[in-house]
Amino acid sequence: MRKFYGAVIRARKILMALFLIAAVACGYCQHLVSVNYDINAYLPEDAASTVALNVMEEEFEGAIPNARVMVKDVTYREALRYKEKLEAVDGVLSVMWLDDVTLLDMPLEMYDKETVETYYKNNAALFTVTIEEESINTAVPAIREIIGDGNAMTGAAVSTAVATADTVAEVRLIAIFAVLFLFVVLLVTTTSWAEPFVVMLGLGIAVVINAGSNLIFGEISFVTNAAGNILQLAVSLDYSVFLIHRFDECRQKAEPEKAMQEALALSTSSILSSGLTTVIGFLALALMRFRIGPDLGLALAKGIGISLITVFLFMPGVILWAYRWMDKTAHRSFLPTFRGLGKVICKVTVPLMCLFVAAIVPSYFTSTRNAYYYGASHIFGPGTQLGDDTELIQDVFGKNDTYVLMVPKGDVVSEQKLSGELNALEEVTSITSLVDLVVPDIPVEMIPDSLLKQLESEHYDRMVLSVAADYEGPETEALVEKIREIAETYYPGANYLAGEGISTYDLMETVTADMVKVNFLAIGAVFAVLLIAMKSVILPFVLVLSIETAIWINLSVPYLMHQTIFYIAYLIISSIQLGATVDYAILLTERYKENRRVWNRKECIVETISNVASSILTSGIVLTVVGLLMGRISTHGLLSQLGYLLGRGTICSFIVVLFVLPGFLYLLDGTITKKKGVLKHEKQ
Fold first, then answer.
1. What does the angle CA 283 – CA 288 – CA 291 come to, to the nearest 5 degrees?
2. Which residues are 463's β-sheet partners?
3. What pTM was estimated for this model as a whole?
4. Quick one: fold of 385-504?
């Protein structure tokens, strides 16, 4: 390795130029990466609702309705004029209202009351709108302009448009605060006024290259866009700092270039093992069938990989260029030695470890008893315009969703029986289909072509069901299963059901199946890496158990506080917290093993805490604040919750590592000293 690093140092100017060119190019490419804000778009290709949407796209011009628009205080005629305005908006494929269901122009009192009140109630009109996916971001604001702020709109398309508009600004704000806070932390924790600038340069280059190289994916999810860069910043912070400190140590014995070569050689094992466990924790997300997992996991793993490459190839040149500047701006450390903290921990660590062991099983079971949201319907809650609009529509018309069922055309009798059985379901408020519209007095020729195209294709007939159900929940799950069962009775293996509630049901099935697989593989892979690196079975087991229990404690809090959490956040945080904070446990354990060659057990704990507390607290505080910033600033419910879980989870991890893990090392000292060869005359 020393020969390789010698070559790196000799070619440092070329390497620095290449990295700067790559950063400029990737900075440009970053703006070409598109962001997808639709959760349902990440369902597996073989999910039943995804297959249904694909078939529908091939067969019908109109997509599935994805927005509901309510206009208050209007007459029947005024509502029709609003419908015309909505239909004229670019990107609006169709608008369905009462006139599409009743067809005839008669007094409203002559129609079925339940059907009428599905679309028109208390002088308020509710339109079911289908917006083209590519036009959502322009069509939704145009609809808002037509109806005004006093009226309401909701649905998947509205959620996507709001997320796109708001999240971009919020992510930018979070990034600005995160960078400023990180810079302040570096000013406090380093011993040179110039060092923060050097570290931030390396971090910035790595983040920009990673963000721009996301272009290879073509598109990234809103989760990756919001969390990827700031997670990369927080997690890879220590790599450059550690190299700089090693370089300072080596410079006491050799001239700068030789010192850098030695510092790189000595740093490789620690930085690589730390980076590799982090990468593996993130890569575990790539095994999810729900494709936000691979999207986030691959981007984060790539980011950490780029950070490692930047540290080993770019930073040596930067440090050698800037070390004189860092020397001239050196100042005393603003941090304490933490020996006092080490003495306190030495006294309390074994009792705390006993309490920790007692909490392992309860925290695990408590963490699995949370209530969950699976889809996007609760992403914008009360206090946001979309959340308030959704509540306003539900207050007038109740909970409502639109399902679309496609069946092979040609068997009118089966369709009539199917429609009759579906109409008999309590939750189904109305069905728009050919067999429901075509009666002896109303032949098919009287149906408008625009409506006919929505209900009939070359191979399929389509039924549009209005259901009095939320987008998710136990009642919705039961309804979806019931409708699928009925449709399967008449058209076994040849029916297709789609809708937001359907996609959410499939999303629930997918992500819950992912949970055990992702966690098991993440834990197993990290354990395997530690097993190879530490050449011990007990230590990797203790380290992984420590961080996993910290994760369980973190995920127990929502249950104890009676909070409902997004299952996607629950699933993602498990891998992220493991990957991002297992480094703390590795750092403390490796330094304990090193110090144990010199100190007895109690003194070794004090010395180890003194050595590592600064690094762990620095990284932990940055990751905590970054998470809490995302939780506080983001109005996107999923991103906000993910931020709070990350911030709280980091606190749990570094408390466990600093206060509990030393107790395990103290009690397992015999296995450590056998490996490290403690001197015979040392006091145990």
1. 100
2. 405
3. 0.84
4. Alpha-Beta Plaits (3.30.70)
